[in-house]
Write a structure and sequence with these properties.
The protein has 457 residues and is α+β, with helices and mostly antiparallel strands. It contains 14 helices and 23 strands. It folds into three domains: 6-81 and 153-341, Bira Bifunctional Protein, Domain 2 (BirA Bifunctional Protein, domain 2, 2-Layer Sandwich), CATH 3.30.930; 89-150; 365-456, 3-Layer(aba) Sandwich (Rossmann fold), CATH 3.40.50. Helices cover 34% and strands 26% of the residues. It is globular. Bound molecules: glycyl-adenosine-5'-phosphate.
Length: 457
């Protein structure tokens, strides 16, 4: 679909996602809850395929990266050492008139173009200027003082005294287990540790569907390098790999761009941070991130825990704390890219067909199998046989409901690359019709060659 009306595209994606079992608003029977979403049956398949693709690209096909699956609840000392307990904060402000709540820096930036993130005094000055920042909800300009609140989710744990937190990023577990990986695996710098999992942030404002939520998934890598490595080429290589992954989700190159964080806004430990931005239906904004985190995390954890986290090179004998490059990928934002890039409306005769043109390896259902008529037992039996022969290799769907045209439309809407129809000719010559999602071309294929055909298409 031409992106001439961006919000319209977003509305269509959200509506299709709900209607066709990709993403549901959570707890809807109770009126919903806090912008939480549930991945429905097709959304879960899509999500698993994206995770699988990421794992294949960054773990399976690489000899220098190993995987990990750490807990959500970590010793709170982890977050003290990493600085999260103290400084994982956002500035919040309320409209005194209508009680709407905003992240102060974003509110001010939207209204004035000024980027005041991290400078609460400047934010409060801006908010008190007459009509400099008007409330997007009620239009008035009557604000409370901006104040910092933590983005950490607190919880309690039996048998433990003190606050426990749900992890705000997956990276924490990687640094904490880095030593155990060194001790148990044959890894040598440069090497990486990858992890996929949930992260929780008590965001002040959520929104844009699954773009900003409080419970989400990240796919992160900590890539350990020698402190004296010429890291710039490696940094560029990682950015390119992040771009390749975005394009494997269906993103077009023209819809990707880089945003380098200005030096003055970099965290004290970061040498360079670049966001990979995507042209989402609502705006061009952060999809993934890449940061050079120096030896900040290992130094902090070494200091706080007393454990020796240095790497002893088995060949050179050198002993040092590695530096780290951190490519981070949001899984929910990846799903939003896949959904919005795939959404297509096409004129077919007098009708408009909606088709999700996912990259074929990401499609939730790979093959749909139809008997031409559901009241012809011989056709149904044959179609079942074909379905049964494919289902161990592919996620398949059997559909005998409604006319074939309707069944094609249903599969188009969930992005199924191939539909196989068993008709009366099949009973005579053991061939089926295979219809392609994108070209709508129909090809007659011998049943015994069907698996090969599916593999190639
Ligand atoms: N360990 C580094 C880190 O967590 P980040 O930029 O704060 O960096 C990484 O988050 C990625 O996680 C983002 O690029 C984005 O894709 C995703 N992400 C962050 N906050 C999110 C939220 N509230 N909802 C959905 N995805 C989020």
């Amino acid at each position: 679909m031409a992106k001439n009306n961006e919000n319209e595209l977003m509305e269509k994606v959200v509506s299709l996602a709900k209607r066709r079992g990709f993403v549901y608003p959570s707890s809807e029977i109770y009126g919903g809850f806090a912008s939480a979403y549930t991945y429905g049956p097709y959304g879960t398949e899509l999500k698993n395929n994206i995770k699988g693709l990421w794992w294949k690209m960054f773990v399976q096909e690489r000899e220098d990266i190993v995987g990990l699956d750490g807990p959500i609840l970590l010793n709170p000392k982890v977050w003290e050492a990493s600085g999260h307990t103290k400084s994982f904060n956002d500035a919040l402000v309320d409209c005194k008139e209508c009680k709407a709540r905003f992240r102060a820096d974003q509110l001010i930036e939207d209204a004035t173009g000024k980027d005041l993130e991290g400078d609460i005094e400047a934010m409060n000055k801006e908010l008190t200027k007459k009509n400099a920042v008007n409330c997007p909800e009620c239009g008035k300009s009557n604000w409370t003082n901006a104040r910092y609140i933590t983005g950490m989710f607190k919880t309690e744990m039996n048998g433990f005294t003190g606050d426990v937190y749900l992890r705000p990023e997956t990276a924490g577990a990687i640094f904490v287990e880095y030593k155990q990986v060194l001790d148990s695996m044959r890894v040598r710098v440069p090497f990486g540790i990858a992890q996929i999992g949930k992260a929780f942030r008590n965001e002040i404002v959520t929104g844009n569907f699954i773009f900003r939520v409080r419970e989400f998934e990240q796919m992160e890598i900590e890539y350990f390098i020698h402190p004296k490595t010429k890291w710039e080429p490696l940094f560029e290589k990682w950015l390119k790999q992040q771009e390749s992954f975005a394009m494997a989700l269906g993103a077009k190159k023209k819809d990707l761009r880089r945003y380098e964080h200005p030096k003055k806004k970099l965290s004290h430990y970061s040498k360079k941070t670049v966001d990979l931005e995507y042209n989402f239906p609502f705006k061009f904004t952060e999809l993934f991130g890449l940061a050079h985190r120096s030896d900040f995390d290992l130094t902090s954890h070494q200091k706080a825990s007393g454990a020796d986290l240095s790497f002893k090179d088995p060949i050179t004998g050198e002993n040092y704390l590695p530096h780290v490059l951190e490519p981070t990928f949001g899984l929910d934002r990846s799903i939003l890219v896949a959904l919005s890039a795939a959404y297509t409306e096409e004129k077919v005769g007098d009708e408009t067909r909606t088709v999700m043109k996912f990259p074929k390896n990401l499609a939730p259902i790979k093959v749909a199998v139809f008997p031409l008529l559901k009241n012809k037992p011989k056709l149904v039996k044959k179609a079942r046989e074909i379905f049964d022969s494919l289902k161990s290799d592919y996620m398949c769907e059997f559909d005998d409901n409604g006319n074939i045209g309707k069944r094609y439309r249903r599969q188009d809407e969930i992005g199924t690359p191939l539909c196989v129809t068993v008709d009366f000719d099949t009973l005579d010559d053991d061939t089926v019709t295979v219809r392609d999602r994108d070209t709508m071309k129909q090809t007659r294929v011998k049943i015994k060659e069907l698996k090969d055909y599916i593999k190639k298409n």
